[in-house]
Structure formats: C-alpha cells, structure tokens
Amino acid sequence: MSDADLARAAGWLSQADGLLVTAGAGMGIDSGLPDFRGPGGFWGVYPALGRARIAFEEIANPAAFAHDPRLAWGFYGHRLDLYRRTVPHAGFRQLLALGERLPGGAFVFTSNVDGQFQKAGFPAGRVCEVHGSIHHLQCAAGCCDAIWPADGFVPDVDAAACRLRNDMPHCPHCGGLARPNILMFGDWQWVERRSAGQQAALADWLAAVDRPLCIEIGAGNAIPTVRRFSERHGWRLLRINPDEFRVPDPARGIGLAAGGRAGIAQLCAAPG
Predict the structure, then answer these.
(1) Do strands 148-149 and 178-182 pair parallel, antiparallel, or not at all (unpaired)?
(2) Whole-prediction pTM value?
(3) What is the pLDDT of residues 182-194, one digit of tens each?
(4) Angle formed at CA 46 by CA 40 and CA 52, multiple of 5 degrees
(5) Active site residue: 67, 78, 89, 131, which one?
(6) Mind listing the pLDDT tens digit for each residue in 197-248?
(7) Are strands 212-217 and 18-23 parallel, antiparallel or unpaired?
(8) Which of 54, 85, 100, 209 is the most exposed place for a label (fewest CB within 10 A)?
(9) What phi, psi does 144 have (nearest 5°)?
C-alpha cells in the first residue's frame, strides 16, 4: 500500500465512529497458529491424518465423532490445547487500542473459533464468533440445545496418532458424547444459540454507529463468510491480506498486501 493509501486509511479512522474488526484464519498466523490452506498444509500439522488420507473436511465433520470419536477428539483436543497455550500477537491489542479511541468502540466479527480476541482483552460481549467456539461444548447426539464451557476438559492427545488418550467429554444432560460447539462441514446438529445471540448484539451495535470503519484481516475467498460481511457492513473497508487483498470498490476500500500483524502496525504508524 502506498503512503497515500495509508494516509487515506488513517483519515478514515479519524472520521469513523466505530471500528468493525473482521477476521479470518490469517489473523492467527502471526501468533504461531497453523495455516490449514490446502491438504499439504493440513497434513503437515497432522501427519497421522495425512497417512490415512483424511482431509480437513472429513475430520472437521460431525460424522467423525460418530465413526471414530477418539480420532475426532484427537484432532479437536490438540487444537483446544494449542489455542489455550497461544499468546495473541501485538496486532490484537493495537486493534483494541484503536477501537477505544472511537465513540462506539470496537466490535469483532470472526470465523475463527480460537478465542484469541477475548484472550487479547476484547470484551466477550463485543465478539461475534460466527462459526462457534472450541472453548464451548454441546451434545454430539443433539439431546438438547445446551452449551457449556470446555474449561473442565483437559485433553491428553497422542500427537503421533492424533488420538485422545484420556476420557472424552460427555453431555451432562444425557451422558452421551460431547463435541465442540463449532459449525463443522455437513453439520446439521450445531447448536447456534450462542452465536445467534452474538450476531444480535452485533446488529444492535451496527445500528448505533453511522461510520464504522471495517478492518478485515486474513479472510480468504475459499469460505467467504467474513469477506462478504465486511463488504456489506463497513462504511469504509481496509482489507489486510498478503495475497487476496483486492477490494471491489477502490473508492470505498483499500487493499493492503501484508500479514495481519504487519498491516495493523503500518496503519497504527501512519500519520493522520
């Protein structure tokens, strides 16, 4: 992005009355989280699944909990432990600080299930996790619409085999298997009540601001949930992405070819 574009983005920020942060998987890469882009990247992180030729779409699927729950919980248990240990990069707190300068503050819309925004200090009531959260559980059999924290579950995973070694979590209502409260592929049993409440709170916030600047970080075209939301709801759009950074309307948006942490730092350092 040119100096002129950076100055224009800084000017938009000074005119905005709220900050809409929209984030995809690329937001967590600078925190050390893996990129599952393509089978090679996914199987590089989970070689046991690669040897079995199990694709991401197959293991991130409620059918996996029915067919091989220890393998499914090996995958999700590893991710749960990883996300608990991960420290959000500096860009999270920089975005939080930018939002605190604006009358309407900041609101986050993310497809990520890792809970990194809350860990970085964003209030839970200002985060919309459109695909759910790995830090919450639900009944795998769908006995009810209850959702509860995963705090009491500490997974012990055999990483070489991608299998859970300790007891699997169970539904406190029926005693059956529990699963993450995450929207998976081919998922008709996801309990969306928690996410729906977050989306309602976001809608109220959007109705209360007139000029929300949308800063989108690390959202791709493969599953365009975040990109479409950004383009429909931001007064102005700053898209930060190392590859897919183009914007549909250059008069209302700017594309910055950068990773999340570097792009946010450039915006914060821009005069204006």
Answers:
(1) unpaired
(2) 0.95
(3) 999 999 999 999 9
(4) 80
(5) 131
(6) 999 999 999 999 999 999 999 998 888 899 999 999 999 999 999 998 999 9
(7) parallel
(8) 85
(9) -160, 180
User: What type of residue sits at position 165?
Assistant: R
153-178 tens-digit pLDDT = 999 999 999 999 999 999 999 999 99
Mean pLDDT across the chain, nearest whole number? 94
Query: Does residue 135 have an active-site annotation?
Result: no
Residue written as tokens 């599953």? 223
Q: What is the pLDDT of residue 271?
A: 73
* Half-sphere exposure of residue 201: CA atoms within 13 angstroms, side-chain side: 18
Burial of 53 (0-12, 13-18, 19+ CB in 10 A): exposed
Exposure of 67 in the CB half-sphere (CA atoms within 13 A): 9
